[in-house]
Amino acid sequence: MLYYFTACDKNARKHYDDTVTVPYRIADLFDKLEPEIQWTLTTHGLNKHVHMWGAIPGDQNIKRWGRLKTNDGMLVYTKEGFTYYAKVLCKTHNKEVAERIWGKDNEGKTWEYIYFLKDLQKVSIPKEVFSAFFGYKINFTPQGFSNIDKEKLAVRMKRYTTLDELVVDLSKKFILSEDDLEENNFQTSLESDFSKISIDSPEIKKQRKKPKKINGMKAWPRSAKISKIALKKADFKCEIDQSHITFVSDASKEHYVEAHHLIPMKFQNDFTTSIDTESNVVALCPLCHRKIHLARKNEKKELLQILYNKRNGLLRNNVEIDISLQDLYGFYAIN
């Protein structure tokens, strides 16, 4: 399992400085720990100094702490994003030790559900990258002590042997897509005259483009022209259901539809061939577009199956992109 805890407010940031960024001198409190904890720390050479964290009593914290196991992954989140990744070594419920290390909060509680960390390493993962990678909404903000949704983690782990491999990809290789950062602006940019957009040229396979900086972050770019070609090829009709007729756009003089990359652009790194291609761009009415992003998973699966059946052959034959329906579900964090 992969967990995370946050250190964003003033008190938490001090605790972060005292027991995460530098290991705490646990030797001064060693005699206050249970024998099995002493043995584990000593065996790993952490009986003098160790990285550690704790959780305040509360039903959810206690349940989550109870599920923590040795070698579970732990990400550390601050206002700067995720800054550290570590493995859980062991845990102890020890109020006395917690009070000695972190004191008490304004309600007289302390962070008594303690867990010790090993193999701490620096990472740099913006929350937007984390959210896009695991399939959360892009404005998701980590709170408290929690874990990655089990289904979302299971979907992503299909590509990895270990959590360590996943975190390396997340920290060093995964790049956002332009649609993650500027969806509304992109759809607006498509609203223009389509009379000069030709749909007669055959589609050809292209190498993926290099990422670019958008709002200070790396992102996979996408072409407005390619999306406009795809919308025109779809005759400005929703590819889920052509009876979904919308208003006529003042700019394009056509029924308004939106462009959606069936294989999301954020997974461009999984392909050497560009996925910003006409076969991968589908025309959707605004309602279906929102549903494919925000609906319950069963509704998403129904929409994705319809679109997969329409586009799988084109992707394979035109641009040599071959994916299964299960692959496509995985790109949307659905098992």
Description:
It is a single chain. This protein has two domains: 2-173, ph1033 like fold, CATH 3.10.590; 176-331, no CATH class. Strand 9 (212-214) and strand 10 form a beta hairpin. The strands form three sheets. The chain has a seven-stranded mixed beta sheet with strand order 2-3-6-5-4-1-7, with helices on both faces. The mean pLDDT is 92. The two termini are 17 Å apart. It has 335 residues and is an alpha+beta fold. It is 37% helix and 20% strand. It is elongated, with a radius of gyration of 24 Å.
What is this structure, in a nutshell?
The protein is an alpha+beta fold and 335 residues long.
Supply the number of helical segments. 12
CATH first level of the largest domain: Alpha Beta
The CATH topology of the largest domain turns out to be ph1033 like fold
Strand content: 15-25%
Mean pLDDT: 92
Largest sheet: 7 strands, mixed
Write the layout of secondary structure elements.
Blueprint: E1 2-6, H1 10-19, E2 24-25, H2 35-43, E3 49-55, H3 59-67, E4 73-78, E5 81-93, H4 95-102, E6 113-125, H5 127-134, E7 145-147, H6 150-157, H7 163-173, E8 176-177, H8 178-189, E9 212-214, E10 217-220, H9 224-233, E11 258-261, E12 281-284, H10 286-294, H11 297-319, H12 325-331
Parallel strand pairs: 1-4, 8-10
Antiparallel strand pairs: 1-7, 2-3, 3-6, 4-5, 5-6, 9-10, 11-12
